[in-house]
Amino acid sequence: MTIIAGKFSTAASRWVGVGPYYAMFPSRFADHVIATHSKIGDTIIDPFAGRGTSIFSAATSGRHALGVEINPVGWVFAVTKLKPAFHKKALVRAEEINELSGRFRRAAQRMPEFYLRCFSPKVLAYLLAARQHLEWRTSSIDRTLMAILLIDLHGKRENALSNQLRQTKCMAPEYAVRWWNKRKMKPPNLDPVEYLTKKLKWRYAHGLPEISESRVFLGDSTKRIRGLSIATARLAPRGAKLLFTSPPYLGITNYHYDQWLRLWLLGGTELPHSSGEPHRSRFTNPTQYHDLLVSSFTKSRDLLASDATIYVRTDRRRETSSITRDVLKRIFPKHVICRRIRPLIGLTQTRLFGNGAPDYGEVDLVLTPN
Q1: Burial level of 43, CB count in 10 A (0-12/13-18/19+)?
Q2: What is the Rg, in whole angstroms, of the alpha carbon atoms belonging to the chain?
Q3: pTM score, whole prediction
Q4: Which string of DSSP letters, residue by residue, matches 58-108?
């Protein structure tokens, strides 16, 4: 799926970037790893799939790809890329939601101050209708429209549905309201259908990507392994040839809290909060982090061929990298491990949210059969 010249000249290049998300693989990096460590027809697995960059890269290069993602936002992005609805059907659904939005005008007026300052009345009513009526878990049409809404739900005011915000994460409501008040900023006055029509036209400009049979399951990788196991056994009876993933980093950020506004649109709470669940947190406890990796990689090991390669990108900071390395050595004792330092390039999650440690950047742990 390598995309170099003519950056957006193919269907795959238009769909690979669906979903702003911290900690996502650069697509060219994913392409390189998959091309180097697997062959056409092989199956790859990713127990921490995120927005599905590794899955999409494999699926558009003749491989089968299977993954698990715990965050519904990442899951919607990943599955939509693998199976987007037809363009016309997404447009029709956008119009249907618009017709329903009139029923939500009064509800929009009663929303907390953040929403009234973040979105225009028409946009907010549309979002409430979408939140109520889009069956994103079961319908590829509804999921596709939801993914397009989620991409620009918040971001730069001139290119988003919202008042000025970051695109990759949503700030706390009180902070955002103070920031807007100080600068006297108002939400953009948009027609939701016109906006979505424009976005869908760009996304579908080269049609739909060619995808080999692939799937991403929604759930905790320590528990959702059954579905992954059944799919792997069917597509790769002798086991997957590549495990390619990047687990969350220890003590960096809470992806569920960062995505609180997108999670609201998917049916979550109106205001951000920490769930308290052990695998939906910032991972500040080294023991819990260790146990997560042990459980996920142990269960993934049972799905791999004996000669499979394990490729894990992780944080370069000493505690995260040492825990990850020790876990991989323990679970794959017959593999040889190679550690490749990746210097800081751009604003990685460690640079944005880390503790100021000098060992910024990432490290790739590559395990090959002995």
Answers
A1: buried
A2: 21
A3: 0.91
A4: HHTTT-EEEEEESSHHHHHHHHHHHSPPPHHHHHHHHHHHHHHHGGGHHHH
